[in-house]
């Protein structure tokens, strides 16, 4: 698409059609800020089709022409993310039904039914017209389909689609009853028509129902994305397609599955800078960049949205202090992004996001602080090239959306604190603070390029994945699993024969019992003459072929194995039978790094390192001066700065 970094953001000229002088000024300010790319049309349906069947694309083409004259690229959006009032009011079926059975009124966004034939018909008409326009202008470089997919729907259209999807998956109701263990509480189904999506007014006790609904909704949005794409491709096939992933790994959307259908992976990043500890936020941001880009390592990755200053929908609209904008933006570049794009170019004058950060604020001047920093960063990015290539690393972490779904819904061994995302973050921070690049891998990933793979909380584990893990270790790889591992299958049925199920042989252990800890309790783990705290629950482990590296130091199972290592084939398999805090994880990983001769790039855990295209980035997100050694040379890094 380009070998230069794309720089710019979301532009909404439809809000300013009555202010031609502002539209003219906007382009002048874009050029001054070194902006070369804008996203256009995302929420413009009511201006493109103000009444049903009445279209006005003149204003859009005028803007496209002016941007073209000023050599500004366009990412052209389809407007399905926010339906116009006439559509929502006239056609009830396009509005979602909540999980309490109530159909929403018209309003807000992220709230259309993907299975509504009328909604699909209306968006196909407008997409076809947009596709015809795209053929005229060479500065349109990318299609942006809809916006931040993710709302659930429980209407009768979705209910019926869900039943059809279940029937295709399980083939008959007898298989479904067996796999969902519906004889418990006498909840067996006689036919698929008796099944409803998980709702507060209906069935909420079957974990497999919820897991399957989550997977079904992902499939729905992928299907809708492909429907929109097909409409456009019927006219033209000369541009790539994307849609913006959003939130964090805590989002219910399985982006690994979605990435099989996009040409470019794009992500909206809105960290809670200055609300939480900035270093912790930076580690979490790094994780989400790695997670999103890793959903397909063979496709480009781009930062589609971020805020140049504050966000208005978080708890507090905290400003980014001087230099934090540059740090946060360059962090995405260090993780292979081909772009730095913001929401929004010009601040909305009214409604929901009038106080959301923007490049051009309500003053409309170029002499305010944020604009100056945006311009300065633009000058920096002009000097950088982009090339599609993988981030080099020998270390990976498993991430699994089905594990996230299951751990959120299963009852026991602990009904709070079993936060999959937060515990994966702890593992990531422990590794990332050691100065290494990290890939995220998934159930269908190949592992042979890695030396070390961490597998946190793999509660759901099927035989096929277990065999892949065993082969990796047998061929010389090293794994580290954490509790809980290998308890159930994809439908939340416990593995018979005990835990860790299919990984018993490679881990060399049996997990006999699980002890939940209260919020007031902390476990103590003894490892190499030091004590480390653990939280939430402890596994009681019997060693088979494995050796104990660490032991429980509290409760009636004091002295029993808590951390184990098993040599298997040419490799090694570690298991942590609890949830350690970052310090304990870090010390264990430090020892494993030494054994595997994995080199750390830097030696300061208050700094964040990443490398890409032979460029090494070291970021100081703290408010303190930090020193470090890199390539045997000593460096000093100022607060909120990078090299």
Description:
- The protein has 643 residues and is an alpha/beta fold.
- Among the domains are: 395-596, Rossmann fold, CATH 3.40.50.880; 608-642, no CATH class.
- It has 17 helices and 25 strands.
- Strands 10, 11, 12, 13, 14, 15, 16, 17, 18, 19 and 20 form an eleven-stranded mixed beta sheet that branches. It has a nine-stranded parallel beta sheet with strand order 5-4-3-2-1-9-8-7-6, with helices on one face. Strands 21-22-25 form a three-stranded antiparallel beta sheet, covered by helices on one side.
- α5 (117-134) packs parallel to α8 (207-233) and α8 (207-233) packs antiparallel against α13.
- The two termini are 28 Å apart.
- The model has no long low-confidence stretch (mean pLDDT 96).
- It comes from Cetobacterium somerae ATCC BAA-474.
- It catalyses: Hydrolysis of terminal non-reducing beta-D-galactose residues in beta-D-galactosides.
- This is beta-galactosidase.
- The active site is at residues 148, 305.
Topology of helices and strands:
Elements: E1 6-11, H1 20-32, E2 37-40, H2 45-48, H3 58-69, E3 73-77, H4 85-90, H5 117-134, E4 140-144, H6 156-170, H7 173-180, H8 207-233, E5 241-242, E6 244-245, H9 255-258, E7 265-268, H10 278-294, E8 301-305, H11 324-334, E9 337-342, H12 369-381, E10 395-398, H13 401-409, H14 420-432, E11 439-441, E12 452-455, H15 463-474, E13 478-482, H16 504-507, E14 509-516, E15 523-527, E16 530-543, E17 547-552, E18 561-568, E19 571-576, E20 578-580, H17 582-596, E21 608-612, E22 615-620, E23 626-630, E24 633-637, E25 641-642
Parallel strand pairs: 1-2, 1-9, 2-3, 3-4, 4-5, 6-7, 7-8, 8-9, 10-11, 10-12, 12-13, 13-19
Antiparallel strand pairs: 14-16, 15-16, 15-17, 16-20, 17-18, 18-19, 21-22, 22-25, 23-24
